[in-house]
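QA checklist item 7 of 12: single-chain prediction sanity check.
[x] sequence parsed
[x] length recorded as 120
[x] structure emitted
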Amino acid sequence: MEKHLTCIGCPLGCRITVLLDGNEIANISGNTCKRGEEYARREITAPVRTVTTTVRVTGGASPVVSVKTKTDIPKDRIFDCIACLKNISVEAPVNIGDVIVKDVAGTGIDIIATKEIPRR
């Protein structure tokens, strides 16, 4: 079976073809750099993503703060992560890098603030 991917490892956006023999990768072609091969292997065997969203802030100059996963999480856990953040609210002030949720959805990955929100 063949799978076709567009690499996001660098700005070139190479069209990568992954040839599978059952669940095993038999061949990877189309990448122009090593990052493309690494991306394709990871995307086929264990895809991950960074989740970015916002959570509510009370007592702050802004009603929400932008947040993200500290590192990538398994792609199949994205909706679990978002569900955990749905009812979260933090008290201002919020600083960049503050841990908003530790071990979100049991992934072992923290949610961190990506913006500063001072008190009103």
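[x] summary fact logged: The first strand starts at residue 2 and ends at 6.
[ ] second reviewer sign-off
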